[in-house]
From TrEMBL:
Pfam families: WD40. Involved in pre-mRNA splicing as component of the spliceosome. Component of the PRP19-CDC5L complex that forms an integral part of the spliceosome and is required for activating pre-mRNA splicing. As a component of the minor spliceosome, involved in the splicing of U12-type introns in pre-mRNAs. This is Pleiotropic regulator 1. It comes from Calicophoron daubneyi. PROSITE patterns: WD_REPEATS_1 (PS00678), WD_REPEATS_2 (PS50082), WD_REPEATS_REGION (PS50294). It comes from the Eukaryota. GO terms for cellular component: catalytic step 2 spliceosome; precatalytic spliceosome; Prp19 complex.
């Protein structure tokens, strides 16, 4: 609004106030000043045209009609000079590979606290477990009998791993320590000092004498196994680093954290190569595929598959509605996930199909017994599965040798929709 003939007549006060308000609104709220109404009136757009009407005439343009459901779910294909609507093919899950179901075959007791971790020796003759009772126990795999108890940790033992090339056992715990045990002398021969808080996970490089650990101080550390030197301190996570894995090819170190991110690390430089932010909740477990250049990660929102070395997202494995404490995989492409509620889910890697669900049975005779899976580890053959649980027991599962595709068919159909990728 403009005041004319200012020399003759002064603008009324209400006009001056309106102008002042309009200028102020445009300056301060310009980008959001003209917001559409919740229920806008029907209006036809105007456009300049060079049609048969007068030159420069303004004519209404009809708003395009919304596509019908049939048109939205179809694609236009030109066949023989004519355009035809063909229905789009819905994304379907490929037929999963059949795997025999798993069943409980043995329960091993001996710990007096939550069993937190396990590892097999290279010969598959024995396995070791660490628990909240501060003990590391060595068990005969064939009979399930206790062979040896190692004492030294002064708090919960959170991780154990056995070297494939040396007679060494490595352990870490909530006492901030990382220890190397000589299994020929059954005693600690090295300590690795550096973590400022509890150490939650440990792993060995498959070909180098390198040890990696991670913990509650939001760091991962790379150690020289022999000299005890802290080669790198891998910083970048903003919360507890709950899981760490090492592999031969780059990225040689993979970490998952409570900050909901996964980081792929350059081992030589000690720097982050890629940070994956697809998960929305804490990542407590990652596991590298034994034969493919890929890995899997577990979080309460989803289990996700990734391609290495770039960290490209492959697919979700959805349905395990629990805090995923642990993941494991064997050479037959069976992925297994364990939850804090005692649930164990078995998956087909290629299709992401969940072919079996088990609920652990809490063993009686223990005070404060509860269901909870802390660690799942396949033996070297991939035909046995060891479960470390909150009822202070170790459970061993095996495949059902009597099962066939006829006795245990897949509950799968060709039209089974695949879950969306994100």
């Amino acid at each position: 609004m403009i005041c004319l003939s200012q020399s003759r007549h002064a603008c009324p006060k209400w006009i001056r106030e309106a102008l002042k308000t309009a200028v102020k609104a445009k300056d301060q709220y310009g980008p959001v000043l003209n917001q559409p109404n919740e229920n806008p009136l029907k209006q036809s757009k105007l456009a300049l045209t060079n049609g048969p009407t007068d030159k420069g005439a303004i004519v209404p343009v009809e708003k395009p009609k919304p596509k019908s459901i049939a048109e939205q779910n179809a694609s236009v294909v030109e066949i023989g000079g004519e355009k035809m609507l063909l229905p789009k093919k819905a994304p379907t899950m490929p037929k999963p590979t059949w795997h025999p179901p798993w069943k409980l075959c043995r329960v091993v007791s001996g710990h007096t606290g939550w069993v937190r971790c396990a590892a097999f020796d290279p010969t598959n003759e024995f396995f070791v477990t660490g628990a909240a009772d501060r003990m590391i126990k060595v068990w005969d795999f064939a009979s399930g009998t206790l062979k040896l108890t190692l004492t030294g940790h002064i708090s919960v033992v959170r991780g154990v791993v056995i070297s494939p090339r040396h007679p060494y056992l490595f352990s870490c715990g909530e006492d901030k320590t990382v220890r190397c045990w000589d299994l020929e002398q059954n005693k600690v021969i090295r300590h690795y000092h550096g973590h400022m808080s509890a150490v939650y996970a440990i792993d060995l490089h498959p070909t180098l004498d390198i040890l990696v650990t991670c913990g509650r101080d939001a760091t991962a550390r790379v150690w020289d196994m022999r000299t005890k030197v802290n080669v790198h301190t891998l910083t970048g996570h903003s919360n507890t680093v709950a899981t760490i894995k090492c592999q031969e090819s780059d990225p040689q170190v993979i970490t998952g954290s409570h900050d909901a991110t996964i980081r792929l690390w350059d081992l030589a430089a000690g720097r982050t190569m890629t940070c994956l932010t697809n998960h929305k909740k804490s990542v407590r477990s990652v596991f590298v595929h034994p034969t493919q250049n890929a890995f899997v990660s577990g979080s309460p929102d989803n289990i996700k598959q990734w391609k290495l070395p770039e960290g490209i997202f492959l697919q979700n494995m959805s349905g395990h509605n629990a805090i995923i404490n642990t993941l494991a995989m064997n050479q037959d492409n069976v992925v297994v996930s364990g939850g804090d509620n005692g649930s164990v889910y078995f998956w087909d890697w290629k299709s992401g199909y969940n072919f079996q669900r088990l609920q652990t049975q809490v063993q009686p005779g223990s005070i404060d017994s509860e269901a909870g899976i802390f660690s799942l580890v396949f033996d070297r053959s991939g035909s046995r599965l060891v479960s470390c649980e909150a009822d202070k027991t170790i459970k061993i599962f095996k495949e059902d040798e009597t099962a066939t595709e006829e006795t245990h068919p897949l509950y799968w159909r060709p039209g089974l929709l695949k879950r969306p990728k994100y």
